[in-house]
Specification:
The chain has 235 residues and is α+β, with helices and mostly antiparallel strands. It is 27% helix and 39% strand. The strands form two sheets. Strands 2, 4, 5, 6, 7, 8, 9, 10, 11, 12 and 13 form an eleven-stranded mixed sheet that branches. A two-stranded parallel sheet has the order 1-3. The longest helix has 13 residues.
């Protein structure tokens, strides 16, 4: 398939649990799944991987029944993505996310209750809840240091930063590869995650914004879809 993370998300949502194999030809704004799997942007190289590369089964996360392969989030990142979609992203590409992200740093936090694998893990005010099947975001930023798309679990992070100063410090820790250790962030992983908000909050799947909700039910489908990837190098 040819497209960005949004197109990949729609294909994976349908292909999960079937015998289909997905070959990715990156063509979108971010191409985060391709980047995390080592698939190059060069069309000829990507096509060659699809025809003669290795095959890897990866997990699929489901949020309220809809599948995703990269990341899902509620709050800050969903507002950033929602504001950038359309003309702004078409015109400026990744720079659109920087602009809309800066505009949303002062957004009011929301109350959240989060249960992970049947136990209460978090309760309090949050500005962003992030779920990851992979670790790398834009510009090589590692949101989750130990994320693997085939470990049967999803990474879960909560950011409690408010205001520009706290957000800048939190993002700076992520840039140097230590996002989970930031003062205003905490992380874990799980297979079944239930999130309840104190009001309707926007969320996103693989870079596509969705309508506001008061609850997110997230589960993992281990090894649910096969993807074409580069042949591993020896050594």
């Amino acid at each position: 398939m040819w497209g960005g993370d949004g197109m990949v998300q729609r294909c994976i949502d349908v292909a999960a649990g079937t015998d289909a194999t997905i070959a990715i030809i990156p063509a979108g704004t971010a191409n985060l799944l391709a980047t995390n799997l080592g698939i190059p942007k060069d069309v000829e190289e990507a096509v060659q991987i699809g025809l003669a590369g290795a095959r890897r089964r990866i997990d699929v996360g489901r949020v309220n029944g809809e599948g995703f392969a990269v990341m899902a989030g509620a709050g800050f990142d969903a507002r950033m993505i929602g504001d950038a979609d359309g003309t702004l992203k078409d015109r400026f590409g990744r720079l659109a996310y920087i602009w809309t992200g800066a505009r949303n740093l002062r957004a009011e936090p929301f109350g959240a209750r989060i249960d992970v694998d049947g136990s209460r893990w978090f309760r309090g005010d949050a500005s962003c809840v992030l779920l990851g099947n992979v670790g790398r975001l834009f510009g090589g930023v590692e949101a989750f240091d130990d994320a693997r798309p085939d470990d049967g679990a999803l990474e879960l992070g909560v950011v409690t930063a408010t205001g520009t100063t706290q957000w800048v410090r939190t993002i700076a820790r992520a840039v140097v590869g230590d996002g989970s250790a930031a003062k205003h962030a905490q992380a874990t992983k799980g297979r079944s995650i239930r999130i309840r908000f104190d009001r309707k909050v926007p969320y996103e799947l693989d870079g596509g914004d969705r309508s506001k909700v008061r609850r997110l039910d997230i589960d993992v489908e281990p090894a649910a879809v096969e993807v074409c990837v580069p042949v591993p190098t020896e050594g």
